[in-house]
Amino acid sequence: MVGSKDTGDAGAGLHTAPIVPVILSGGAGSRLWPVSRGSFPKQFWPLLSDRTLLQETALRGQGQGLANPIVICNGEHRFIIAEQLRDAGVQDARIVLEPAGRNSAPAITAAAFIVAEQNPDAVLWVMAADAAIEDVPKLQVALEHAVLAARKGYVVTFGMTPTRPETGYGYIAQGGSIDGLPGVYEVSRFVEKPDRDKAAAFLAQGGYLWNSGMFVVRAATFLAEIKRYEPALYTYVQEAVEKRKTDMDFERLDPESFCKSPDISVDYAVAERTDMAAVVPGNFGWSDVGSWDTLWDLGKKDAQGNVLHGNVVVHDVSQSYVRTDGMLAAVLGVDNLIVVATQDAILVASKDRAQDVKTLVQTLKNNNRPEVDMHRLTYRPWGHYEALTEGHRFQVKKIVVKPGEKLSLQKHYHRAEHWVVVEGTALVTREDEQVIVRENESIYLPLGSLHRLENPGRIPVTLIEVQSGPYLDEDDIVRVEDMYSRTV
């Protein structure tokens, strides 16, 4: 047994201070391409249930003793996050927008400063938006142990008991138990993602845990450790928080200050340097859902060991993961494969090479392939649009506008548009006139004309948009007025 550490009296309300879930929603999840992409990454997909990973994470952060969550995210994803939280019944979440991705340490520091404004003794429960937990009651028990340690000044992480020689996770070497804190242990060291031989040795030796990336720590403790080890980060993020602005229901960190912060993970900034590191071992079925072979591990398998999603037909196939978002995927006479089909891309890979999908995505990026970041279906705060077909000087899209929403007042310098309403009723502004366009009616918007579409009804408006002109990219748009405060 090793003696427990304590930072002393941290305030009269230390042991009753709230626990604040902090959800980090960043990254593109490139190992789950072609489903996960920059514009709509893996945390926004229902990969394991009828809820998205973000929704499952947020719902785990609901309950007695837990405060309203804080979500730290990319500004481009703010409306997706707000809608998904609303659909899941998660109320009063604070959505904080990063002007640029600066890794996990600046994001957590921003959350700590915001929480400390109300109560520096509050305990942050930091978790990624894209992880899966199979046994939530066991997680809650582990959280109770972690909170007790955090209130004594520890920076606590959860270490998962390994079940295989995984090379996609970092590891934690578990140290001795801590007096007065049941279920909590010191951290001997953190280990980078190992190769397969080293991972197998860790599994055989025992005493090594997967690093879950979840942290439990008092706001004041975390800020003190950041100030100690990364003073520049502390200063710039503090400025970014102090200068933040409210935008609708969102909080925007100051871009100039935040972008000066070092780009560094919480592991490198604090966890691997602090002398207050502690770990709570757990076996509650955690996974970072980081690759297709992980989804095969977690999925419900048929008699041949296959995990099948969507419009799939297989024959003489075993130990494979096959997923399609629409088109028929017919697979014959193979085993140990990953086959994933979306509307505009197909991935075929050996299940043993699932970690290397990230390398393939980098190759696509080097070749300037738009499929790296964009789906054919693109979400907007007012609804979504889907690219149907395109050719020389024309493009056709399907647009869906939610009730009560409206597009920006805009114009284009290089294209004209023709809108055909196929469902619902649209109110269209065209220059100085307003026109009601009903089902099976259409309206023409000449090049350069100022226009807007809104849905005044109670059902979605669906229309077919035909664009024509010499340049049809999305950056040919001049927004004159926008209820969502977008500039591009």
Mind explaining what this structure looks like?
This protein is of the alpha/beta class. The protein folds into 3 domains: 14-287, Spore Coat Polysaccharide Biosynthesis Protein SpsA, Chain A (Alpha-Beta Complex), CATH 3.90.550.10; 292-366, no CATH class; 377-481, Jelly Rolls, CATH 2.60.120.10. It is 23% helix and 33% strand. A 6-stranded antiparallel sheet has the order 20-21-22-29-24-27, with no helix packed on it. It is globular. The N and C termini lie far apart (58 Å). Residues 367-482 form the Mannose-6-phosphate isomerase type II C-terminal domain. GO terms for molecular function: GTP binding; isomerase activity; mannose-1-phosphate guanylyltransferase (GTP) activity. InterPro entries: GMPP_N, Man1P_GuaTrfase/Man6P_Isoase, Man6P_isomerase-2_C, ManC/GMP-like_b-helix, Mannose-6P_isomerase_type2, NTP_transferase_dom, Nucleotide-diphossugar_trans, RmlC-like_jellyroll. Belongs to the mannose-6-phosphate isomerase type 2 family.
What's a concise summary of this model?
This protein is α/β, with parallel strands linked by helices. Helices cover 23% and strands 33% of the residues.
What are the salient characteristics of this protein?
488 residues, alpha/beta, Spore Coat Polysaccharide Biosynthesis Protein SpsA, Chain A, Jelly Rolls, 3 domains, six-stranded antiparallel sheet, 11 helices, Nucleotide-diphossugar_trans
| Number of structurally distinct domains | 3
Strand content: 25-35%
SS-derived structural category: alpha/beta
Low-confidence segments, ≥5 residues, pLDDT <50?
1-12
